[in-house]
Design goal:
By secondary structure, the protein is mainly alpha-helical. It has helices at about 10-25, 30-40, 40-50, 65-100, 115-125, 130-135, 140-150, 155-165, 170-180, 185-190, 200-205, 235-245, 255-269; strands at about 25-30, 55-60, 65. It has four domains: about 10-65; about 70-125; about 140-210, no CATH class; about 225-269, no CATH class. A hairpin with a 4-residue loop joins strand 2 (about 55-60) and strand 3. Helix 2 crosses helix 3 (about 40-50) and helix 7 (about 140-150) packs parallel to helix 9 (about 170-180). It is extended and about 100 Å long.
């Protein structure tokens, strides 16, 4: 089934579900969780599910997958594993060559012994800046959370809370919650004075907070576009301001003025 005739909401929901499957290997067979992943209400996703459901196949209990995406994901993982294995074999072969071959073929191997690879590694580690290894203190998921969270206070405490939060939802839900709360009155007032510290936010499971954005719309409401006053089709506010209609209905000159102008041109010719 093609997606060319889908509306923008259907394409958006479908895309976010594919992103989630790429990271996690599947999407949950649960309409409430699917709606949270899609960033829409359960009612809206249920109305669109007749179009979306043929794109996914049951795989195990409570799991849905898009078969084409899963095939691509498996192939990429196999390629990554193959590259890692090739690199490991190449490294072992290089080390073996260093051990068995002297730097100068004409020299006596006993006079010029091959350096111990472990000493070279230690030398490289000592010469590297400590900042290179600091990032390894934190996991990739936590660093993504830290980058998204607006208040950069207590990174070590936040990481400890991140590790202890065993019931935290998938990463995409956490990022969406932060994005919605950034636009809430509580976080925007007083220059962010009431934004909780990252560790507090994690300890209290604040990803489940229900917030109202400053515009007054709930976070899962999509942006609406104005309708053309002539054809009633959706267009942009910029087109309405510039043309008074959508570009397809725009007529820079009234019909009677256009006929008059063409008549005058004909007389001159």
């Amino acid at each position: 089934m093609d997606t060319a005739d889908w509306d923008i909401e259907e394409v958006g929901i479908y895309t976010r579900l594919l992103f989630y499957q790429w990271v996690n290997g599947f999407i949950p067979d649960d309409m409430v969780r699917i709606s949270r992943i899609a960033g829409c209400s359960v009612k809206k996703v249920s109305n669109k599910w007749n179009y979306l459901s043929p794109k996914f196949t049951q795989k195990g209990e409570g799991k849905l997958v898009n078969l084409r995406l899963e095939e691509s994901r498996i192939k990429q993982q196999e390629f990554i594993n193959s590259s890692i294995e090739s690199g490991r074999r190449g490294g072992l072969k290089t080390q073996e060559t260093r051990r068995t071959q002297p730097s100068d073929p004409l020299s006596d191997p006993t006079k010029y012994p091959t350096p111990d690879p472990s000493s070279e590694i230690k030398a490289l580690q000592s010469s590297s800046s400590s900042s290179v290894f600091k990032d390894k203190t934190y996991t990739e998921d936590f660093l993504n959370f830290w980058d998204a969270y607006p208040k950069k206070i207590g990174k070590k405490a936040a990481f400890k809370s991140w590790q202890n939060a065993k019931d935290k939802p998938p990463m995409i839900i956490i990022i969406n919650a932060i994005s919605n709360q950034k636009r809430s009155d509580q976080w925007l007032n007083s220059r962010g004075q009431y934004i909780p510290n990252p560790a507090t936010w994690l300890n209290q499971g604040r990803w489940d907070d229900e917030t109202n954005t400053r515009s007054g719309n709930p976070p899962d409401v999509k942006q609406t576009f104005p309708n053309c006053p002539n054809c009633k089709k959706e267009t942009t506010k910029a087109d309405i301001d510039k043309f008074g209609s959508c570009p397809g209905c725009f007529n820079p000159m009234p019909e009677d003025k256009l006929k008059e102008l063409l008549g005058n041109i004909g007389k001159k010719i």
